[in-house]
Amino acid sequence: MVQINEYYSQLKENYLFSSIARRVENFCALHPQADVIRLGIGDVTQPLTPSVIRALHDAVDEMAVKESFRGYGPEQGYAFLREKIAEIDYRQRGINISAGEIFISDGSKSDTGNIGDILGEDNIVAITNPVYPVYLDSNIMRVGKYTKIVLVSCREENGFLPERPSLHPDVIYLCYPNNPTGTVMSKTQLEWWVRYALDNGSLILFDAAYEAFIRDRKIPRSIFEIDRAEHCAIEFRSFSKNAGFTGLRCSYTVVPKALKARSSVGEISINSLWNRRQSTKFNGTPYIVQKAAEAVYSPEGQAEVRETVTYYMHNADMIRAGLTGKGWKFFGGENSPYIWLKCPGGMDSWTFFDRLLEECHIVGTPGVGFGIRGEGYFRLTAFNSHEKTAEAIERIRGWDESKFFREQ
Ligand code: MLT
């Protein structure tokens, strides 16, 4: 009989958001009349914008004509999109990134999960705690839980920034603006990590999926704003949250050509290695989706993205105001669509999840689902509509949660 990859048995039974979806489904089946408001998974609610829809229609029409039909595309992505990204997301912001350093993909979840394919099993991998579960789970699948993974605590007293690791990791995952805590890293703090990686020969895997939500101009939106980061970092970016592509699927990963890694035959280009991995295991993001992503870079598309981000950040402001009024402690939501609150009355994350669902019919994400350091915290997202967010805040405002404090 075939044997499984035993590391899978070290994983939790279900992926965090699948477990939550199942619990909510059960609740809805038992209470079909409940008007449940979802502030849990970071899934967008606003439709695709007019310029994206137009580009999709045009690309579909192209596919219907022999002369413009496209079959397999380049695994790295079409040049038209890679060039736009290099120009608008990087060079216009003073960062020297070329199209050849950009790989188009179907989501940052895939790329942050797959990047381990090109990294040696002996690397020590530092992962923050709490963390977006994909980084941890994908590494457990690859090397197991016990020997190569170091969890770096992010605590309230440090503003949920990672503690400096006690031993030198070879690979460091950082996500800023942070999922789940909604906190950001200042330029000085990010400079510290880049310096640390350069001094220790480490590789930083920088997830910048939420960069569009940064409102404070002093906060870096790309790790490549930091001097010499191209020698120690890979950056992941997504069209999911800013342009509403969670269903359409498009993202990109920047692997600088200056980035090198050790191998038994000497130094190797990480860019070439990732190119090799992608051309073997990935057939490229669909042409029509890449045309839609290209439309995001038109002047109209850029204005629409700004409008969408402003829309969601208005929700974040509403949530922050509501929680402030309630007297609950929280973090994030200023430069991020996530608000990380401390469960009132010392409730644990899952108890708070259940109470909020049962009493207010609101779904959030229990902090402990992101790691043990998330216990006692809870994440709300700003991705629902204004109306639903306002209604959720109204329900929370009228809720007497203190009866549960006495129960404990
Ligand atoms: C989240 O809620 O953490 C995100 O939606 C997950 C993701 O983008 O995959």
Explain this structure:
- The chain has 13 helices and 15 strands.
- The chain is an alpha/beta fold and 408 residues long.
- The protein folds into 2 domains: 6-48 and 300-397, Alpha-Beta Complex (Aspartate Aminotransferase, domain 1), CATH 3.90.1150.10; 50-298, Type I PLP-dependent aspartate aminotransferase-like (Major domain) (Aspartate Aminotransferase, domain 2, 3-Layer(aba) Sandwich).
- The protein has a 7-stranded mixed sheet, sandwiched between helices.
- Helix 6 (187-200) links the parallel strand 5 (171-175) and strand 6.
- Helix 3 runs parallel beside helix 9 (287-295), helix 4 packs parallel to helix 5 and helix 10 runs parallel beside helix 12 (386-397).
- The mean pLDDT is 96.
- It binds D-malate (MLT).
Keywords, separated by commas or semicolons:
single chain; 408 residues; alpha/beta; Aspartate Aminotransferase, domain 1; Aspartate Aminotransferase, domain 2; 2 domains; seven-stranded mixed β-sheet; four-stranded antiparallel β-sheet; 15% strand; binds D-malate
| Count of individual helical segments | 13
- Which structural class matches the secondary elements? alpha/beta
What summary fits the major beta sheet? Answer: 7 strands, mixed
Radius of gyration: 22 Å
Low-confidence parts, pLDDT < 50 over ≥5 residues?
A: none
Q: Which CATH class of the largest domain applies here?
A: Alpha Beta
Strand content: 5-15%
Work out the helicity level. 25-40%
- How many DSSP-defined strands? 15
Quaternary structure of the protein: single chain
What order do the strands of the largest sheet run in, or round the barrel if closed?
Answer: 2-8-7-6-5-3-4
Average pLDDT over all residues = 96
CATH superfamily of the largest domain: Type I PLP-dependent aspartate aminotransferase-like (Major domain)
CA-based shape = globular
* Separation of the first and last Cα atoms: 49 Å
- Please write the string of helix (H) and strand (E) elements: HEHHEHEHEEHEEHEEEHHHEEHEEEHH
CATH fold category name of the largest domain? Aspartate Aminotransferase, domain 2
CATH architecture of the largest domain: 3-Layer(aba) Sandwich
Domain count: the total is: 2
Bound ligand species: D-malate
